[in-house]
Design brief:
Length: 235
């Protein structure tokens, strides 16, 4: 039987209901009884993060980390708060603490990459995304942000490949088509930029371009014709 008076259940219920002020007040009462209550400290930080009181959230995280410098829960909340405050060097420091305990933590690896992107250290950022992708080659966060870093480094074809891989994994991300199209524009490839904007994958572009050449028409007209024929076949 579930104990509805269990503090963890009460806090979870408040969190799921979005009652972050009530959650903070409840945790404050727990801390009056025991200032070192780890659960109350952690959830005070969480409620303050959701209330967008980032500096206060960090102060509670630090109280937890004073008890255990590798507390994953507090480190993650602190990273989110620091990101909102744009304190990216401190984000890197917190991510290092997570990685010291688990070098394969993809969330911390990506957080490091994002912080480095924000600091315009794109080459170093790519190294962290590559570490993530070595562990999980379908990690969308790493692929998308690696593409952004590569673009800033002038590696537009590699950036396109990352966007394309991400599209294959999750075709529902419509913004990828536009981002990939812009990379082709930077290379001066107008036909590819048009096709990319329509969501066409790299593997399908050559056939459309080849058919356009055979039919002596523009890539635009060939794409429209191919789309029309495909719709007719589905009827």
């Amino acid at each position: 039987m579930v104990n509805l008076l269990d503090p963890s259940i009460i806090i979870t219920r408040m969190y799921e209901s979005g009652k972050f002020s009530d959650m903070l007040n409840y945790c404050s009462k727990l801390l009056e009884k025991n200032p070192n209550d780890l659960m109350a400290l952690q959830n005070s930080a969480l409620s303050l993060l959701n209330l967008e009181k980032f500096s206060e959230a960090i102060s509670f995280c630090d109280k937890v980390l004073k008890q255990n410098k590798f507390d994953n829960y507090a480190l993650i909340i602190k990273i989110h708060a620091l990101e909102n405050l744009r304190k990216y060097n401190e984000v890197l420091s917190c991510s290092e603490s997570i990685l010291a305990k688990n070098k394969d933590d993809t969330w911390a690896l990506n957080s490091s990459g994002l912080a480095l992107n924000a600091l315009s250290k794109f080459k170093e950022a790519v190294e962290f995304y590559d570490k993530t992708l070595k562990i999980d080659d379908k990690n969308i966060t790493a692929l998308m942000n690696k593409a952004i870093s590569l673009s800033f480094l002038g590696e537009h074809r590699k950036s396109i490949e990352c966007y394309d891989r991400t599209q294959i994994i999750d075709p529902s991300l419509k913004e990828l088509a536009i981002a990939k199209s812009r990379e082709y524009e930077k290379l001066g490839l107008e036909d590819e930029a048009f096709l990319a904007a329509q969501g066409v994958l790299i593997k399908d572009m050559e056939k459309i371009k080849s058919d356009a050449k055979d039919n002596r028409c523009s890539v635009f007209h060939q794409f429209c014709q191919s789309e029309f024929e495909e719709k007719e076949l589905k009827k």
